[in-house]
UniProtKB/TrEMBL annotation:
Protein name: 8-amino-7-oxononanoate synthase
PANTHER family found in the cross-reference section: 8-AMINO-7-OXONONANOATE SYNTHASE (PTHR13693:SF100), CLASS II AMINOTRANSFERASE/8-AMINO-7-OXONONANOATE SYNTHASE (PTHR13693)
Group of enzyme by EC: transferase
A GO biological process held by the record: biotin biosynthetic process
Originating organism: Falsiruegeria litorea R37
Endoplasmic reticulum is among the record's keywords: no
Domain of life: Bacteria
Keyword vocabulary terms for this entry: Acyltransferase, Pyridoxal phosphate, Transferase
Gene Ontology MF terms in the entry: 8-amino-7-oxononanoate synthase activity; pyridoxal phosphate binding
InterPro entries xrefs: Aminotransferase_I/II_large, AON_synthase_class-II, PyrdxlP-dep_Trfase, PyrdxlP-dep_Trfase_major, PyrdxlP-dep_Trfase_small
């Protein structure tokens, strides 16, 4: 037996099934990033970085937030984020994955129930796995299924707190959650609604504050705004009731035992939030571009029903999906295939994202070329 023979075999099996993942270089027109507002390479964030360095913002935190790692930039960002998103309090973390594991491993207690949408992100699953609450899925975007699950759980005599975990804009499907109905459900059952706004932040809601912004002041709404997608930086802001934020600060292991995000990173997120507030043109342009892309998908592929900047083109099997992605890459379009376990079996897809990095004529060309390449797939 050679060292790591088991790992070798597992990787070979993935290759055989068309599921092997390899890192490929960034090339071609952007149809793959989450940089929806084109902020990643923007002059506004470059200038903010230079300005922050010039005024002495440190590049590293030097420790965890509860020790010496707590920098002025973190505190300012959290104050500004709470005000911007309209919440009582905010907590800045290194990333959305870490934030979801912190939320779900820490806040629901052992008598509680976490009801989660069937398409919820892997990071929420990992958080629930680390936590002590009972967990149960409900059918995607099906509010009455969630209500039935609440009824059944209460009828069995459970008295714990109910937490409802959803995304506002689903990362691999691009559809939107019925946030108003979910909030009403949470209100009716004294449940807490936890909305992962990862893909909506910057793009949807007044000033890009997300699809749940109208309820932001509620005690029973907790939101997650990741900062590495529409905001173009990295990190994540958890926004909600002060008592929940204080609980995370006191109990979340991923917060307590981690080096704080770079203060420079916090300064850049502050700049990105300012840009959302002060430059509505960016969000308006993203909206125009996504409408254009929806129309081109209808014209060239006969596909409709897209709701956002994330446009899944479902192919089904893994290998043709990856072959199609490769031929699009060869034509100069950076389009990636998404396979299980990221999406359910038999629903492998191209995940096309529309960002301000790619102008309308290139979007038109891409959909035209995609319709040809799709026809050329073996049946
Ligand atoms: N939630 C959702 C819905 C996501 O799509 C992602 C990123 N893929 C995350 C959380 C994790 O966020 P981050 O990339 O900031 O760790």
């Amino acid at each position: 037996m050679t060292l790591f023979a088991r790992h070798d075999r597992a990787l070979t099996a993935l290759q055989t099934r068309g599921r092997y993942r390899a890192l490929i270089a960034r090339a071609g027109h952007d149809f793959a990033s989450n940089d929806y507002l084109g902020l990643v390479g923007s002059e506004v964030l470059q200038a903010a970085a230079r300005e922050a360095l010039d005024r002495g913002v440190p590049v590293g935190a030097g420790g965890s937030r509860l020790l010496r790692g707590n920098a002025d930039e973190h505190v300012l960002l959290e104050q500004e984020a709470a005000a911007f998103f309209g919440a009582q309090a905010a907590l800045f973390m290194g990333g959305g994955f870490q934030a979801n594991t912190a939320i779900f491993s820490t806040l629901p207690g052992h008598e509680d129930l976490v009801l989660y949408d069937a398409l919820i992100h892997a990071s929420t699953h990992d958080g629930m796995r680390l936590g002590r609450a009972k967990t149960q899925a409900f059918a995607h975007n099906d509010v009455s299924a969630a209500e039935d699950a609440i009824g059944t759980w209460r009828a069995a005599g459970n008295i714990g707190q109910i937490w409802i975990a959803v995304e506002s804009l689903y990362s691999m499907d691009g559809d939107l959650a019925p946030v108003a109905e979910l909030m009403a459900l949470a209100d009716a059952h004294e449940a807490v609604l936890v909305v992962d706004e990862a893909h909506a932040t910057g793009v949807f809601g007044d000033q890009g504050r997300g699809l749940s912004h109208a309820y932001a002041a509620r005690d029973n709404l907790l939101t997650l705004h990741t900062c590495g997608k529409g905001l173009g930086v990295s990190g994540a802001l958890i926004c909600g009731a002060q008592v929940l934020i204080d609980t995370l600060i006191n109990k979340a292991r991923g917060f307590i035992f981690a080096t704080a995000p770079s203060p420079l990173n916090a300064a850049l997120v502050r700049a990105a939030l300012n840009e959302l507030r002060d430059n509505p043109a960016r969000r308006a342009a993203a909206q125009v571009l996504m409408n254009h892309a929806h129309k081109e998908a209808q014209d060239h592929l006969g596909l409709s029903g897209f709701r956002s900047q994330i446009m899944p083109i479902i192919i089904g099997a893994d290998k043709p999906t990856m072959a199609l992605a490769c031929s699009m890459q060869d034509m100069g379009y950076d389009i990636r295939g998404i396979r299980p376990p990221t999406v359910p079996r038999g629903t492998s897809r191209l995940r096309i994202s529309i960002t301000l990095n790619t102008p309308a004529p290139v979007i038109s060309d891409m959909f035209r070329d995609l319709s040809q390449a799709k026809k050329a797939l073996p049946h």
